[in-house]
Structure formats: C-alpha cells, structure tokens
Amino acid sequence: MTTADVRDAAGAARRRRVAYVALRLSGLLLAVLVLGHFVATHITTDVADTDSRFIDERWASALWIVWDGVMLAATLGHAVLGLWAVTADYSSGRRRTAWRAALLVGAGAVFVIGMSLLWLGATG
Amino acid sequence: MSLAQFVFFCGFAVVAMAIVAFGAVVVRGARRDDGGPFVTRALVRRLARPGRDRAELQRWAFYLHRISGLGLFAFLCLHVMDVGLYVVSREIYDEVHQVYGSVPMRVAEVGLLFGLLFHTANGLRLVAVDVADLGLTASTRVLYGVLGVSAVGTIAGAVFVLGPVFT
What we know:
Chain B: This is Succinate dehydrogenase subunit C. Chain B: Its main location: membrane. The structure holds two protein chains of two kinds. Chain A has a single domain (3-123), classed as 3 helical TM bundles of succinate and fumarate reductases. Chain A contains four helices and no strands. Chain A has helices spanning 3-43, 52-58, 62-90, 93-123. In chain A, helix 1 packs across helix 3. The model of chain A has no long low-confidence stretch (mean pLDDT 91). Chain B has a single domain, classed as 3 helical TM bundles of succinate and fumarate reductases, CATH 1.20.1300.10. Chain B has helices at 3-33, 41-48, 54-88, 90-97, 103-131, 136-166. In chain B, helix 1 (3-33) runs antiparallel to helix 3, helix 3 runs antiparallel to helix 4 and helix 3 packs across helix 6 (136-166). The longest helix of chain B has 35 residues, at 54-88. Chain B is elongated and about 55 Å long. The relative contact order of chain B is 0.11. The model of chain B has no long low-confidence stretch (mean pLDDT 87). Chains A and B meet through helix 1, helix 3 and helix 4 of A and helix 1, helix 3, helix 4, helix 5 and helix 6 of B.
C-alpha cells in the first residue's frame, strides 16, 4: 500500500461521509417542504381548484418560487444520493455504471427542465 | 379523454410500472441476500408480538423505504412535466390538471400521501437512530410510531382528498 493509495482511500471515505450527511440534511429539509407542498395543494386548497389561476397567484409571490426551486433541487439531490446506494445494492460492473449514468442524466434533465419552467413561469 | 390527458395517463402508467418492477427487484434481492420467511401468517404473528423479532420489522421498513422513495422520484419526474405545461399553454395545463380532480387520481393521491408520510417519518427515524444513538429496541419502538403516524396521517388526509367525491 503506497501513500497515494492511503490518500485515495481517505478521499473516498470523506466523499461517502459527505454524501451520507447530505442525504440526511436534504431529507430533513424535504420533510418540511414536501409535506407543506402537499398541504397547500390538497388540504388548504382542494386539488381540483389548483388550476392555472392557482399557479398565477402562487408564483406571484417570491416565497413560493423560492420554495418550489429549493424543493426541486433538494428532491433531486436526495433522489440521486439515495438511488446511488440502491444501484450499489442491485447491480454491479458495467450495468451499475449504466444505471448511474442514466440516473444522473435523468435527474439532470428534470432539474434543467424544471428550473427553466419555473423561471419562465415566474417571469413570463 | 383528450390527447394531452391520454399522454398524462400513459406517463402515470409508466410510473406505476416502474414502482412494480422496482418492487420485484427489491423482493428478489431480499430473497437472495436476507433469506428467511416472507409475508406468512407466522411472520405477521411474530411482528404483532413486540420484543421477539425486532430486526424483522426493520427489514420490512427498509424495503418499503426504498420502494416508496423510487415511487416518489418517478412521480416527481411526471409531475414536473405536467406542471411545466403551465408555461407551454395554460389551456393544455388545465385540461391535464382536470385528471388530478378525478376520482381514480384522488385515490392515487391518497397512496402518494401514504408514501410521503411513511418515507418522511421513517427517514426521520433513521436520522434519530444516528443522532440519539438508538439501539434495536428503541428504534423498533419508534418504528411502531412511524407506522402509526403514517396510518393516521393517511386517513386524516384521505378525508380532505376524497371528501369532495362524496359531497
């Protein structure tokens, strides 16, 4: 075992620790944001009334734009970190690499599409 | 059913199939890695008697956490697209959004609420296991609370979500 190997192992352990903590912190944030979103769209307003006029009112307020943007980013980060561990359990080798690539591309696409739609919806 | 609504329906079917397929992967992996009995009457009896086989219930919570997590992610992908229709055309958005108020979709929303509540409460339990250093006994006790909160929260939410159907 060379010094470089030890440094690589330490780096990998640090990345895993950061991912572990980030998964849990984003989860804590989402517990508030997502349940709040469900309450706003199903409990305080009936779901049939959350039509385009409802979005007009909501996205007129900076609070809800920030809420939705942070919620989208945190959800996708949480999903990538969680499914990263899932791919480690149920696949290996090249298949695992392919699933992880698909996960990153999929989550990245949803992020870009979702954020640009939020931007256009809020400004347009 | 308009074309846009049909496309949304197809997207929802894909989400449902992804959940079922992933559920099969998880159960197959469980059979391979964890062995042991599956949902038999003996298992249910054992789970109902606290103190005997605490690890068993945690194992099932782990599987349900994974499956609900994937389901929520799959639904999010669909949901970002259908809300995004608001930017493309308000008419198409309203058309697709009518599906959300239909009775079958309201039932699906109650299922979504259960997934959200279980995944949230169980996730907070996992954080508590680390932060408060809970052992097997205490974390199983918290798990009973998680199941109780998910069940009660789902029933309470169902009153609001399904209520308009009956009035």
